[in-house]
Design goal:
It is a single chain. The chain is an alpha+beta fold and 113 residues long. The protein has a single domain, classed as Aspartate Aminotransferase, domain 1 (Alpha-Beta Complex), CATH 3.90.1150. It contains five helices and six strands. The chain has a six-stranded antiparallel β-sheet with strand order 1-2-3-4-6-5. The protein starts with a helix and ends with a helix.
C-alpha cells in the first residue's frame, strides 16, 4: 500500500518527484504531502514548497525574511505574491521552476540539495 507521500509523487514530472525524494532523504530537510501542497522544512522551519493545484513553487514570507533572502529569491525569478492581506509569499511557476527553487533554497539555507 502506497503512502500519502508516494501517492503525491506519482503524477509529478520525474524531475519534480526526484527533487522531493532528494529532500526526503536529506538529513537537514523534510517534506510532507498535504491535500494540495507539498511542504518543505529545513531543520524544523517551514521553507515553502509546491502548490500541486497551481504548479506554483513558493517560499514562505517568514522564511525569506529570516534568511535575508529577498534578493536571492528575486534573482531566481520568484515574485512577491499577495493572495490576501494576511497571505504573502514568494512564488514562481513555469519552465525551470524546480531548478530555480533548488538553487535558491541552497542559497537561503547554505545547505545544497
Amino acid at each position: 500500500m502506497k503512502t500519502n507521500f508516494e501517492n503525491a509523487l506519482a503524477p509529478m514530472p520525474k524531475p519534480v518527484a526526484d527533487f522531493f525524494l532528494d529532500i526526503k532523504q536529506h538529513p537537514d530537510y523534510d517534506c510532507a504531502a498535504l491535500k494540495i501542497q507539498m511542504t518543505i522544512h529545513f531543520r524544523g522551519s517551514k521553507v515553502g514548497g509546491l502548490n500541486r493545484g497551481s504548479s506554483e513553487w513558493y517560499f514562505s514570507r517568514v522564511f525569506v525574511a529570516d534568511c535575508g533572502g529577498i534578493e536571492k529569491v528575486e534573482r531566481h525569478g520568484f515574485k512577491k505574491m499577495l493572495k490576501r492581506p494576511d497571505h504573502e509569499y514568494w512564488g514562481r511557476s513555469g519552465a525551470g521552476s524546480v531548478n530555480a527553487f533548488r538553487i535558491a533554497l541552497g542559497e537561503l539555507t547554505g545547505v545544497r540539495i
